[in-house]
Amino acid sequence: MSGAGNAGAAWRRGAGVALLAALAACARGGALPAGLAVLRPFAYEAQAGGPAAAYGTLWNGSDSADVVDSVTTEGLGAAGLHSSETVNGFVTMRALERPAIAAHDSLALAPGGAHLMIESVPRELRAGDTLALTFWFHRAGPVRAPAPVRPYGQ
């Protein structure tokens, strides 16, 4: 299987795991939102001047597909969605340009797969901080997602 095939399979597994986790939340009494939402957003600690990454699940509970046009951060600078894949032992990233999320489906942002990359954060991000993220959807408009910062790896 090619590296691109492996990345696609990993993305599908990640999306399946995220969807199962969301469904499990429903079984415990939580309900999935009827519209667009960012479920369980978080980021890891990062050094000032370096990149940071944020994760979560982009859930489309609407009856129509939607597209992520962009993502903005409050006070942190440029951000964009990327995918990661390992080819011949090297990890590479590529931008996810306007990913579509089908109706009643999700896009998993998880370590080692698709993620939100924040370029050159101007200050250190420490556990306990909260990032103000806004995902801009083509149809639904802005969806705000406060993302707590965790120690790396937790």
Shape, please? globular
Element-by-element helix/strand order = HEEEEEEEEEE
Distance between the termini: 31 Å
**Biggest sheet architecture:** 10 strands, mixed
The residue fraction in helices comes out at 10-25%
Q: How much beta, percentage-wise?
A: over 45%
Structural class: alpha+beta
Which spans have pLDDT < 50 for at least 5 consecutive residues? 1-13, 24-29
Q: Give me the count of strands.
A: 10
Radius of gyration: 15 Å
Helical region count?
1
Mean pLDDT: 85
Task: Explain this structure.
The chain contains 1 helix and 10 strands. It has one helix at residues 3-27; strands spanning 36-44, 52-60, 66-73, 79-87, 90-95, 100-101, 105-109, 115-118, 130-137, 141-150. Strands 1, 2, 3, 4, 5, 6, 7, 8, 9 and 10 form a 10-stranded mixed β-sheet that branches. Residues 1-13 and 24-29 have low confidence and may be disordered.
